[in-house]
Amino acid sequence: MKKLLLFVIASLIYFISNAQVLNTERLRIEAQENTWEGNLDASFGLSQSKTGQSLSLNLDGQLSYTRQRSKWMFLTGYNRKTFSKTNVLGKDFSIFNHFQYTHLRYNYDWTKRWTIEAFLQEQFDQVHEIDIRGLGGTGLRLELLNTDSTNLYLGALYMYEYEKNSPADTIVYNNDHRMSTYISAGFKVKDHLTVNSIIYYQPNLLAFNDFRILLETKISVRLTQKLLLNTSFNLIYDSEPPSTVPTIRYNLSNGFSFVF
Fold first, then answer.
1. Residue-wise pLDDT tens for the chain (260 aa)?
2. How far is CA 129 from CA 23, 118, 134, 180, 243, in A?
3. Cα–chain center distance at 17
4. Under a CB-based contact definition with an 8 Å cutoff, are residues 115 and 141 in contact?
5. How far apart are CA 161 and CA 177, in angstroms?
6. CA-CA distance, 178 to 10, in Å (whole number)?
7. Which among 198, 179, 174 is positioned nearest to 26, based on CA atoms?
């Protein structure tokens, strides 16, 4: 019952992100055999000025379960930002960012260094005009280096992408076949300090001039055994975004993680 409750809680918690490309390396909690492990992150922001009031809420949760050579990983998230502008008629309330997604991934340790991966993902992103994006794919992950202080991985996956977006009050449907390749590196600087970086490259297999690149770095400082302070920076380049969305976007965030 306790394990089921943890799973339900994680399913209801949403993840912080403003990116169209998702860094799924956050899923890789080092779970022990036959146990559930996960973490919950949260951040809240409130500011007031002469132009009005802004409010931001970011929540995320992830869960991992390992059994023999199989590993299940689940992540779901939510980000919402609102702005309330005061004028002579009162308050004009508007939402200027609304983002959510759910990701499920399965790993099977084929050999000591090779892992088979499969995943499903659903995504909504108001500010980047994605009404819905559905992904499904599979591929291989190779362990290049794994020591007490450093790990390095290379991954290559095929994925099918269905997308509906609405730039400039029009509706556009896309059905694309993409390759998702990545290099992931993690460094344990000290017992309480870790740095993780990853770069994704996702070209359209039928039109290589249509591609996305995501670069992300996360610094984590362990404050207690179960509480961490995180600073993350991500940079995205999309060569073929909706017409009103910029090709380059970046985000810097700070928050806390509770590990259970």
1. 444 334 333 333 333 333 345 555 544 545 556 778 887 777 777 777 666 777 888 888 888 888 889 999 988 888 887 877 655 455 565 666 778 888 999 999 999 999 999 999 998 887 777 888 899 999 999 999 999 899 999 999 999 999 888 766 778 888 999 999 999 999 999 889 999 999 999 999 999 999 999 999 999 999 998 888 889 898 999 998 877 788 998 888 887 777 77
2. 20, 27, 14, 22, 10
3. 6
4. yes
5. 6
6. 29
7. 198
Tell whether pTM > 0.85. Answer: no
Distance between CA atoms of 173 and 76, rounded to whole angstroms?
Answer: 24
Topology (CATH level 3) of domain 2-259: Porin (2.40.160)
- For the chain, give every domain's residue range: 2-259
